[in-house]
Amino acid sequence: MSEFNKDDYLNDMEDAESLKNDPASAGSAAASSSEAPADKGDKTAADASKGADAADAKAGSADAKADDADELTPLGKAKKEAADYLEALQRERAEFINFRNRSAKEKDVFRQHGIIDVLTALLPALDDIDRIREHSEMDDSFKAVAAKIDKAFEKFGVEKFGEKGEDFDPTKHDAILHKPDPDAEKETVDTVVEAGYRIGDRVIRAARVVVASPQN
Q1: Are residues 178 and 210 located together in one domain of the fold?
Q2: What's the chain's average pLDDT?
Q3: Average pLDDT score over residue span 86-110
Q4: Rounded to whole angstroms, how far apart are CA atoms 157 and 108?
């Protein structure tokens, strides 16, 4: 075996200029340099793909949680059903209360109409009783009957009105005659021909009266 000679080894190596001008060497270097960016691009694409997969997985997890929230437990379903029944019951109760109040008002109206019909039918007889009281003496039995009739109408809220000397009010008095009176300072009731009747604020019949009027 020959002895290694360093100077001979270094002289046999190609210098940098010859490598630069050698096409084969240049092509090999270019191929090496082009492979590096390609590897980097592949890595970036892989990272992007992983990010997209992670986003899809996160969205799927959110949808699963929403579906789980929609599915109530047996206790939750029972509470929801109880709340629905309670709401329906309260609505029905409110409608029943309104119906009951409306029925009570209608009942009062029908009752009042019935009393008015009876009173209107008995007005001629009541007027005759008043005339007998005013112009003749009544025996005890007749007085008792008249008193019972008056109490019966009072029980149903019927009020009799019209008195001599009270101020004339056209809303409750029906003036059949105006009589000049030199002593009168304002219009007053001089004579009650037929008494008036009312129920509450509703006048069933105005009192028919003779009015004393001041002289002009």
Answers
A1: yes
A2: 77
A3: 92
A4: 12
